[in-house]
Automatic annotation (TrEMBL):
The lineage of its organism: Bacteria, Pseudomonadati, Pseudomonadota, Gammaproteobacteria, Immundisolibacterales. NCBIfam families: hemL (TIGR00713), PRK00062.1 (NF000818). This is Glutamate-1-semialdehyde 2,1-aminomutase. Coiled coil: none annotated. Its cofactor is pyridoxal 5'-phosphate. It catalyses: (S)-4-amino-5-oxopentanoate = 5-aminolevulinate. One of its GO terms (biological process) is protoporphyrinogen IX biosynthetic process. Gene3D superfamilies: Aspartate Aminotransferase, domain 1, Type I PLP-dependent aspartate aminotransferase-like (Major domain). Pathway: Porphyrin-containing compound metabolism; protoporphyrin-IX biosynthesis; 5-aminolevulinate from L-glutamyl-tRNA(Glu): step 2/2. It comes from Immundisolibacter cernigliae.
Length: 425
């Protein structure tokens, strides 16, 4: 840890908390983050030469494994042709066509640079299209750090105890209503009280920012019905679940079509990218086709689109998601067996290439249950796992991810190491 420690000291002097995104900090689990030198396949190597099997995978962005050869080659070839033009390219069209073909209900799509930009833009469009101001979100869901969405948020905001951030004007925060995840009655009550003012309901169709919390049967369908009954739009934030829980994302997996969908992570193959899209009549309202403004100097960047296209080419191969899901199933079953052997209360969930584990007997259904996590014990377990060379998210309130590079031997090695970690923690 010597080199990581020195880098962290330097980082602390010039970067708030030493990290460029709070979720990378170890404040909730103790210790300091290893600084990464390189990564290949399922493995990270830190600057001290220590290897880790990685289950963070750039928070889900990496789905083929680190430095996947076809993605790296596509990016290198694109880089040699220029890094950014600020003018349209063929690759952008191809990526947009691919997204519109594969994502249900996506008639048109706009590329942006992050998930935050995607959700921020989608809610602006929803407000413009409906002429209404209010949003409904769910406690523990994270939709990026735009002002309107940092209300009862998950992920780092939850981990570090600031779910509703200072700096968001209370007048603006008051326009965001929140309900417990999986609680359809609470949503219906909000619509009953303020339905005529609600522009949209935004939801992570599988929540991945309070741990991994599955939608209960009927929850997403119920949101669709409630939105339709009250003239509100349904926004699926698929930044995490898009091309992660199925080729067509959560919409395909659960059979519910949203009005607008946001994407990020996987569609950039590890480069900065986001996207929002959906119904043709809505997307036609975006500038320059319509009056709702949103723009970006680097949007549709040639390197990001090259990485995205190379990634999406491989995930479309037959059996890709079946294999990914089998990997996640084998991993979570192995972790469960390791916990059982050590007598640790434990539960897991997995869907497609994402998973969660919890230090409790049943998987949580909402934030209140997720917050019953034994955070101190999670910290001990996290440190023991890391000591065994297993990199999981340094928080009880994050999902985990597997990639196509997590082969059977990798999972087997993980489980053997996890058995030792559970016994120690
Ligand atoms: N929405 C969801 C569901 C996310 O998980 C995230 C990031 N983890 C975001 C939005 C924000 O994306 P970004 O970090 O790229 O801004």
């Amino acid at each position: 840890m010597q080199h990581s420690r020195k880098l962290f000291e330097r980082a602390l002097a010039v970067i708030p908390g030493g990290v460029n995104s709070p979720v990378r900090a170890f404040g909730a689990v103790g210790g300091q983050p290893p600084f990464i030198a390189e990564a290949h396949g399922a493995r990270l190597r830190d600057v001290d030469g220590t290897d880790y099997i990685d289950y963070v995978c750039s928070w889900g962005a990496v789905i083929l494994g680190h430095a996947a050869p076809t993605v790296v080659q596509a990016v290198q070839a694109a880089a040699a042709r220029g890094l950014s033009y600020g003018a349209p390219t063929g690759a952008e069209v191809e990526l947009a066509e691919t997204l519109c073909r594969l994502v249900p209900g996506m008639a048109q799509v706009r590329l942006v640079n992050s998930g935050t930009e995607a959700t921020m833009s989608a809610i602006r469009l929803a407000r413009a299209a409906t002429g209404r101001k209010l949003l409904v979100k769910f406690a523990g869901c994270y939709h990026g750090h735009a002002d309107s969405l940092l209300v009862n948020a998950g992920s780092g905001a939850l981990t570090f105890g600031v779910p509703s951030s200072p700096g968001v004007p209370p007048e603006l925060a008051a326009l965001t209503l929140s309900a417990p995840y999986n609680d359809l009655a609470a949503v219906e009550a909000l619509f009953a009280q303020r339905g005529a003012d609600i522009a949209a309901v935004i939801v992570e169709p599988v929540a991945g920012n309070m741990g991994c919390v599955l939608p209960q049967p009927g929850f997403l369908q119920g949101l669709r019905r409630a939105c339709d009954a009250h003239g509100a739009l349904l926004i699926f934030d698929e930044v995490m679940t898009g091309f992660r829980v199925a080729l067509g994302g959560a919409q395909a997996r659960f059979g519910v079509t949203a009005d607008l969908v946001t994407l990020g992570k996987v569609i950039g193959g590890g480069l900065p990218v986001g996207a929002y899209g959906g119904r043709a009549d809505l997307m036609a309202q975006m500038a320059p086709a319509g009056p709702v403004y949103q723009a970006g100097t680097l949007s549709g960047n040639p390197l990001a689109t090259a990485a995205g296209l190379a990634t999406l080419a491989l995930v479309q191969q037959p059996g890709f998601y079946e294999r990914l899901e089998a990997t996640a199933a084998a991993l979570t079953a192995g972790l469960q067996a390791a916990a059982d052997a050590a007598g640790v209360p434990f539960s897991t969930v997995h869907v497609g290439g994402m998973f969660g584990f919890f230090l409790r007997d049943t998987a949580p259904r909402d934030l209140a249950e997720a917050q019953q996590a034994d955070v101190a014990r999670f910290g001990r377990l996290f440190r023991a796992l890391l000591g065994e060379g297993l990199n999981f998210a340094p928080s009880a309130f994050e999902a985990g991810f597997v990639t196509a590079a997590h082969d059977a031997a990798t999972i087997e090695a993980t489980i053997a190491r996890a058995r030792r970690a559970f016994a120690a923690a």
